[in-house]
UniProtKB/TrEMBL annotation:
InterPro entries named in the record: GH, GH_1_N_CS, Glyco_hydro_1, Glyco_hydro_1_AS, Glyco_hydro_1_beta-glucosidase
Pfam families, alphabetized: Glyco_hydro_1
EC numbers on record: 3.2.1.21
The protein's name: beta-glucosidase
EC class (word): hydrolase
Membership in a protein family: Belongs to the glycosyl hydrolase 1 family.
Length: 459
């Protein structure tokens, strides 16, 4: 870790803001989805979330206390453009101005994600990410955000985890908009990649010195077999989750193996000239890492795919990790594989020479520990999780991986999408009834880790 390393925390609009009906905010696909019975655990919605909308001062104070120098947040598209893609809602602009100004006043650099899954419902009604029109709507939205906030925001992330947008949203249907259609999912995978390239160019046209990247969710895929069928599945799953968006912006080409697999599903949305449009220079790659994955022979004990089990169309790649392979798991049942973070950034460095800078834009774990009799939250498992991932990263950086920042997910416990409020990822505990915030032990550990690393670098 060099001087100037970015130490941060991350969060996203729908997961924390609440105030769903304030400031003339329009409905997003997550409002519709979460209010549809049976879609989200316990019927939880983001209507109130952790009420960050009304608590900017208090929440930024926590960041100051923690000692971070960057905060990654997302802009809610339906706050800025609640009714249509033309008329800007001033109250939405005021809210983000207040947040950005408060951060800047405290020397915390704002890092803005443009799209973290809360698509305006009116855009979904026109086909959402399955329709090419979304690319041009996103381009306009990216340009507008840069004009509004680009004097203070210099780091932009176009899209967060487009794999989830495409495959959880349009194929498995377990995220908004809840569609289960292979053609829509492949179309969304193409349109998110295109939107990223259009968005990057739109930002740079307004602010040539802005730093722009995309955030992808990546994993290392372990395997216990090298039979040809498993090998092919490995390549497909790897291409589907790890390579698609990176290959697109670095080379304008999708992985051959998937082009073949998707066949007509892709060719019917891929227009002539798209190769040129997909390719774009970026300043960094954002990587969200939670755990390693597994591709092997189908076993009788395999459960159906879970949130972190990507698989390509028409394949039954088995993504569950064998019970015996990992000792511990989080309360989300995700395996804990800290060495994977280091391995992953080394792989990126090896495979894509175009990528000169990596930001770990999310890393963290769901552990549901609550307050003890003294009101303290001793989340030792999260302390171990974050600490071991940071050490793995440090080792990879020493070996040459170009990593320039790390953002813990998340500062606060918040709304975990289809899991509602049942999974706590925060280093700050939130009482979901009173909305009181209490830093956990992991907050103190991260605070100390940042301070000690800074000290060592200065000495
Ligand atoms: C990825 C997403 O970007 C974030 O919104 C989510 O809460 C975390 N991972 C944990 O699942």
């Amino acid at each position: 870790m060099k001087q100037g390393f970015l130490w941060g925390v991350a969060a996203a609009s729908y997961q924390i803001e609440g105030a769903a009906h304030e400031g003339n905010r329009g409905p997003s696909i997550w409002d519709t989805f979460s209010h549809t019975p049976g879609k989200v655990l316990n019927g939880d919605t983001g209507d109130v979330a952790i009420d960050h909308y009304h608590r900017i001062e208090e929440d930024v104070k926590l960041m100051v206390e923690l000692g971070v120098n960057v905060y990654r947040f997302s802009i809610a598209w339906p706050r800025l453009f609640p009714q249509n893609s033309q008329s800007i809602e001033q109250q939405g602009v005021d809210f983000y101005n207040k947040l950005i100004d408060t951060l800047v006043a405290h020397n915390i650099e704002p890092v803005a994600t443009l799209y973290h899954w809360d698509l305006p419902q009116y855009l979904e009604d026109k086909g959402g990410w399955a329709s090419r029109d979304i690319v041009y709507a996103f381009e306009h939205y990216a340009k507008t955000c840069t004009e509004l906030f680009g004097d203070r925001v210099n780091k932009w992330i176009t899209l967060n985890e487009p794999w989830c947008t495409s495959f959880l949203g349009y194929y498995l249907g377990i995220h908004a908009p809840g569609i289960k259609n292979a053609a829509s999912a492949v179309a969304a995978a193409h349109h998110t990649a295109l939107a990223h390239a259009y968005g990057t160019r739109a930002i740079k046209a307004v602010a040539p010195n802005a730093q722009v990247g995309i955030t992808v969710n990546m994993t290392n895929l372990r395997t216990d077999s090298d039979d040809p069928e498993t090998k092919l599945n490995w390549q497909l799953v790897d291409a589907n989750q790890n390579r698609w968006w990176i290959d697109a912006f670095t080379s304008g080409k999708y992985p051959e193996v998937l082009v073949k697999e998707y066949g007509v599903l892709l060719s019917q949305v891929f227009q002539e000239g798209d190769e040129k449009l997909l390719k774009v220079d970026n300043d960094f790659l954002g990587v969200n890492y939670y755990c390693d994955g597994f591709v092997g022979k189908a076993r009788i004990t395999d459960r159906p795919m879970n949130v972190h089990s990507p698989y390509p169309i028409n394949r039954t790649a088995n993504m569950d990790l064998p019970e015996t392979e990992f000792v511990s798991r989080t309360d989300f049942n995700w395996p804990i594989t800290p060495e994977g973070l280091g391995n992953l950034v080394l792989r990126i460095n090896r495979d894509w020479s175009e990528i000169k800078s990596i930001l770990i834009t999310e890393n963290g774990a769901a552990f549901n520990d609550g307050p003890n009799e003294h009101g303290e939250i001793e989340d030792h498992r999260r302390v171990d999780y974050i600490h071991s991932h940071l050490e793995s990263l440090r080792h990879a950086i020493d070996l040459g991986a170009p990593v320039d920042g790390y953002f813990a997910w998340s500062l606060w416990d918040n709304y975990e999408w289809a899991e509602g409020y049942s999974k706590r990822f925060g280093i700050v505990y939130v009482d979901f009834d009173t909305l009181k915030r209490t830093p956990k032990l992991s907050f103190k550990m991260y605070q100390k880790y940042i301070a000690q690393t800074r000290l060592a670098l200065n000495s």
